Amino acid sequence: MSEQTIALVTGANKGIGYEIAAGLGTLGWQVGVGARDEQRRESAVAKLRANGVDAFGVPLDVTDDASVAAAARLLETGAGGLDVLVNNAGVTGGGRQRPGDVDLAAVRAAVDVNVIGVVRVTEAMLPLLRRSASPRVVNMSSGVGSLARQSASAGEHQTGPLSVAYGPSKTMLNAVTIQYARALARTNILVNAACPGFTATDLNGFRGVRTPQQGAAIAIRLATLPDDGPTGGYFEDAGVIPW
Ligand code: NAP
Fold this sequence. Notes:
Blueprint: E1 6-10, H1 15-25, E2 30-35, H2 38-50, E3 54-59, H3 65-79, E4 84-87, H4 104-129, E5 136-140, H5 147-150, H6 166-183, E6 190-194, H7 212-223, E7 234-236, E8 239-240
Parallel strand pairs: 1-2, 1-4, 2-3, 4-5, 5-6, 6-7
Antiparallel strand pairs: 7-8
Helix pairs in contact: 1-7, 3-4, 4-6
The structure holds NADP nicotinamide-adenine-dinucleotide phosphate (NAP).
């Protein structure tokens, strides 16, 4: 295992993922830019390198078994391992999928990327993480995945548009996060879920009110937790989010 901390950020070619990669890079870490499109990936890597980040491209489509397996091989043989995995790649699943007017293919796409993609990548990377001195897994969830917030009385804490795709996919991602944290509780691998807040990116047509740098902050915090830090938690900048 290399002396330098090695991170992989999925969906790092733009938006919050790019800023997570940039933030981890300023710590002196080696950062794998996981992205499915070659041109977008290479231009993000070039931009990060121009800003002094030790970045390298990792071809990665989280919905594709072969792509994920190849990414794990690249990290093992090319980079020398993996210490921190940030599962950031996500899609909305066709925007609003209001009950009564649902495109099943869009719901399936949201689950495929936001949940199964995270499981696929985490499974592939776990053998590498187990060899690290301080491994961390950060799952980029959303506050709209909080059942407590979704079911709060109207006007109190309900967040996000009605959708049976995006929010529920993040709820399942939260449940998956807990399963990994439980399974790995006796190891040094800390696994947590993060909400970046409503951030101006392609995902929401840049309607978000936070900058991508602000959105990246919570994931960077969870990626850099001390060894006695929390695991199996769900956090935003302001603190713990109720499940
Ligand atoms: P974004 O700008 O749309 O970026 C999404 C990233 O995911 C892109 O790099 C995209 O790659 C990648 N991606 C999508 N499908 C992929 C796949 N199959 N394989 C690999 N990469 C894939 O959105 P963002 O706002 O930065 O979102 C980042 C994360 O934050 C997501 O998980 C999102 O749900 C979460 N989040 C965002 C907000 C917000 O307000 N923006 C709020 C809460 C949570 P391409 O460029 O190739 O499409």
